[in-house]
Amino acid sequence: MGLLDIFVAALMPVLKVLLLTALGCGLAIDRVDILGEDARKHLNNVVFFVFNPALVVSNLGGFITYKSVAILWFMPLNILLTFIIGSVLGWMLIKYTRTPHSLRGLVLGCCAAGNLGNMPLIIIPAICKERGSPFGAADTCYLHGMAYASLSLAIGAIYNWSYVYNLVSILDRVNRCLRVTLRKINPRKLFAPSTIGAIAGFAIAIIPQLRKALIGDSAPLRVLQNSASMLGDAAIPTVTIVMGANLLKGLKGSVIQLPVVMGIVAVRYVALPMFGILIVRGGVFLGLVKLDPLYQFVLLLQFALPPAMNIATMTQMFEVGERECSVIMLWTYALASVALTFWSAFFMWLVA
């Protein structure tokens, strides 16, 4: 596979996200007003309580098995490291830029939490279907890639709706620091709908009786899995369009400092991918990561993703930091067309 083919394969999924984002932005302008403020709030609630849990449970149940969970044990650790390193870098950024107390949770969340669900579920199938993909036959690549992306989605959802959810919901408490936040996580918030969906998905994946009852053309309860899959399919385009609508606020300006925004960009697109290369290649060298180029690519990709879209959903749910979050998302996703394409192409070359 030539360098140009790798670049095109990496660019196509990013363009899909940007097109849906632009559509959402267009639907939110005053002259159209299809995705006004009230509409976005209602859609966010539907995504939070219905689409995201359905997406998690259907993908985990459909693509993950007990055997694959045992083989892919390094991925939860890999994702945890992205959150830890991102949080440390985010805290350093906060101290350096003297970020206002009310925005510290938002900045930490954007540095720590990447788009571990939506982006891999878009990028990996698109790369597998591209002609000349470095990951082998399209069908095999798609089957394995969806298993990897589904596990990434589930683990990311658990971390997002426990750790980041609590960070964003204490934005207005000036004296609450990261250490206190981690110690006083609310158990009720820990079990957000997406987390419950992940637990249900893992149960289907590892309990043979449940899997036989729900998964497969001959499963007696396959209608439940099919219905969840239909709802889950709506999650990615809905979240992407709503995020595009939220970006309109970013175009109107904000009080957030430019060094803070550029610092988040540097953390997510420069520092974290470099740490990712060291960690993943180190894992391969030590025999902790299996010698599957597609699996290694997914692990590397988890370090180079833009901030999680769900952060925008959280700020809108709590009605805090919405405009500042819009600015951050505007710049990080605009620059993703360059950064994510570059890193995806480089990672494919590295593991191929």
How would you characterize the overall build of this protein?
The chain is mainly α and 352 residues long. The protein has one domain (3-351): Na+/H+ antiporter like fold (Up-down Bundle), CATH 1.20.1530. Helices cover 77% and strands 0% of the residues. The protein is built from 17 helices and no strands. It has helices spanning 3-28, 37-63, 66-71, 74-97, 104-112, 118-129, 138-168, 178-183, 187-190, 193-206, 208-214, 222-233, 235-251, 258-285, 293-301, 310-318, 322-351. Helix 6 runs antiparallel to helix 7 and helix 14 (258-285) runs parallel beside helix 17. The radius of gyration is 19 Å and the shape is globular. Residues 171-182 have low confidence and may be disordered.
Structural topology:
Layout: H1 3-28, H2 37-63, H3 66-71, H4 74-97, H5 104-112, H6 118-129, H7 138-168, H8 178-183, H9 187-190, H10 193-206, H11 208-214, H12 222-233, H13 235-251, H14 258-285, H15 293-301, H16 310-318, H17 322-351
Helix pairs in contact: 1-6, 1-13, 1-17, 2-7, 2-10, 2-12, 2-13, 4-5, 4-7, 4-14, 5-7, 5-14, 6-7, 7-10, 7-16, 10-11, 13-17, 14-15, 14-17, 15-17, 16-17
Task: Kindly list the characteristics that best describe this protein.
mainly alpha, Na+/H+ antiporter like fold, 352 residues
